[in-house]
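User: Assemble these into one structure.

Assistant: Restating your components, then the assembled model:
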Amino acid sequence: DGGITQSPKYLFRKEGQNVTLSCEQNLNHDAMYWYRQDPGQGLRLIYYSQIVNDFQKGDIAEGYSVSREKKESFPLTVTSAQKNPTAFYLCASSKAAGTGELFFGEGSRLTVL
Amino acid sequence: QQQVKQSPQSLIVQKGGIPIINCAYENTAFDYFPWYQQFPGKGPALLIAIRPDVSEKKEGRFTISFNKSAKQFSLHIMDSQPGDSATYFCAALTSGTYKYIFGTGTRLKVLA
């Protein structure tokens, strides 16, 4: 079945550590996105990528980094510079940027201890 | 101007009731308005979407009503069921751009 796979589902991190969240899609979609979800704040865009080897900052990119070396993969690194990293992180994809339906993964919940 | 304002924040209805969730926007360049359904611990999934050339769209028990002049759109759930209990997000997009603007979500609980 086609879809988006995020891992790990739950992650605990000590302050000062970098962590990387994995996102893989087999939908053959060009565009991929990372969103952060906090209670009562909807979904906020961290980074997006329209094609391989290209990505752009979203609204809340500070303290995060991404790479897009393969069409299928768009990992997100939460760095120690991110002041408040505890959140639910969602990866999504679409056929091309701004073409309609976003397909989401099941999310990764990061907790900083 | 880039915001989508969603209300109410939470909603409780009896089984069989018709919950209505409302969203309002300012940016007239938006031309795609989806609704997403999210169950706890899961990612959102597209429920239904509308473009501004129609005023209403139905898919099963779910209906979007769209008022272009008022810049508002709403989701109606007919004959609601306990399994509809979830968080619902409206969103707006300008075709060709990357930036989906999401509402803050409505937590719906349908009582058995």
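The mean pLDDT of chain B is 94.
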